[in-house]
Design goal:
Blueprint: H1 9-12, H2 35-52, E1 70-71, E2 89-98, E3 111-119, E4 122-128, E5 144-148, E6 161-168, E7 180-188, H3 189-194, E8 199-203, H4 208-215, E9 226-233, E10 242-252, E11 264-274, E12 280-287, E13 291-292, E14 299-300, E15 305-308, H5 309-313, E16 321-327, E17 335-342, H6 344-352, E18 358-362, E19 369-378
Antiparallel strand pairs: 1-12, 2-5, 2-9, 3-4, 3-6, 6-7, 8-9, 10-14, 10-15, 10-19, 11-12, 11-13, 11-16, 16-17, 18-19
């Protein structure tokens, strides 16, 4: 994969997304874009440009390139005529992949997802996620906001049929044909809404299986991994207010004894999703930029994170949040260093001085402490 730029054109607005009638790669179907879709694309382009044009607080080490922070995209990418239907509800569609094949040499796959809505023989592009670098189990921060009307009461009586395509980024070009197509999955939105916990997992299918089979050996070598789709109801009564989360410093133990000047670290913020089986799932809502420490003190300063209240907790200030700190590993997969469990309510107590801002970071083992983080909240 090429060197990564924080302002890659692929991360902004690909040509196919708002280009009128263009053929979707490998499908021979045409993307139909209405005037409203053009306006939505313009808004998306503006917001993504803001997110990817962040100034980096610290210069990266020699030979390294900082990766931009990524927050949950709160653009209404896929609002359409169903928004006028009183029976429509707004949902947030989140995507995760597991065990996708490694399409790169010398590093791991750099995955991003593209969502299409299928109508007859046509496919309308609804948007793309950020790229998750060097990860064979990517959890995408950016989600899609859709209006859902049950087919039984829909004015048109039609299913919303969707297709997700997963790619490995191989260049900075905005043409999907410049990237490796990994696989895709097709599903009805009602299948997700009617599933237990509004969650389904599908096998990825595609032409990449033959390439993966040639590269690997052994049983199951042609597997392309799985795609999990999760739907969450959006509380539209929540004011779309933004708070600023500041990770001023973090002192973290390293997972390996290597040159400190070239080790990158980043953090993610995830909110708890309690499922009916008792399983706790942490849905990522923010991923920071990667910071490379040139100092031997072990301290890292991150850019400030701006997150909406709706994204953070959907209106519940006591909803548990998990902040995880990671060591970036290009070839073997990122290593989790530790985590901190908080909530917006607790962060507000820290901001008021009612609770200590210095929080111990828990490690992978019981009673293990890997450092501390100083957190501050404003807004």
């Amino acid at each position: 994969a090429p060197e990564r730029s924080p302002s890659s054109p692929v991360e902004k607005n690909p040509a196919w997304l708002g280009s009128g009638e263009r053929t979707a790669r490998g499908r021979g179907r045409k993307c139909e874009t209405s005037a409203s879709a053009h306006r939505a694309t313009a808004r998306q382009d503006m917001m993504l440009r803001r997110m990817t044009s962040r100034s980096m607080a610290d210069s990266p080490a020699a030979g390294q390139v900082n990766e931009p922070a990524v927050g949950r995209a709160f653009e209404r990418w896929a609002y359409n005529s169903t928004s006028h239907n009183p029976d429509a509800v707004t949902i947030e569609l989140c995507l995760e992949c597991r065990e996708i094949p490694n399409m790169d040499f010398g590093s791991l796959s750099d995955a991003f997802a593209v969502l299409y809505e299928l109508r007859g023989i046509s496919a309308t592009g609804l948007g793309l996620t950020e790229t998750v670098w060097d990860d064979l189990n990517p959890r995408f921060v950016k989600c899609y906001y859709l209006h859902y009307v049950p087919p039984s009461i829909s004015n048109k009586g039609m299913e919303r049929r969707l297709r997700v395509e997963i790619y490995d980024r191989d260049s900075l070009k905005d043409d999907l044909s410049a990237h490796d197509f990994i696989g895709s999955a097709v599903f009805n939105l009602s299948d997700v809404m009617n599933a237990q916990d509004h969650r389904i997992t599908l096998d990825l299918e595609g032409r990449a299986a033959a390439r993966v089979s040639r590269r690997n050996q052994g049983g199951g070598a042609n597997k392309l991994g799985t795609l999990t789709i999760m739907a969450n109801a959006v509380n539209e009564k929540v004011h779309d207010h933004t708070v600023e989360l500041r990770m001023n410093t973090a002192e973290l133990k390293r997972k390996r004894l290597v040159d400190r000047s070239v080790i990158g670290q980043f953090y993610t913020v995830a909110r708890r999703r309690m499922e009916s089986t008792g399983r706790i799932h942490w849905t990522p809502i923010y991923r920071s930029e990667v910071q490379y420490r040139a100092s031997a003190t072990g301290y890292v300063k991150y850019d400030h994170a701006n997150i909406t209240i709706q994204t953070l907790n959907n209106g519940d200030p006591k909803l548990p949040l998990r902040i995880e700190f990671w060591q970036r590993e290009k070839r073997t997969g990122h290593q989790r260093i530790g985590f901190v469990d908080v909530s917006l309510h607790r962060l507000q107590l820290m901001a008021s001085g009612a609770e200590n801002k210095h929080v111990v970071i828990e490690g992978e083992y019981q009673d293990e402490q890997v450092g501390h983080v100083v957190m501050a909240l404003s807004g």
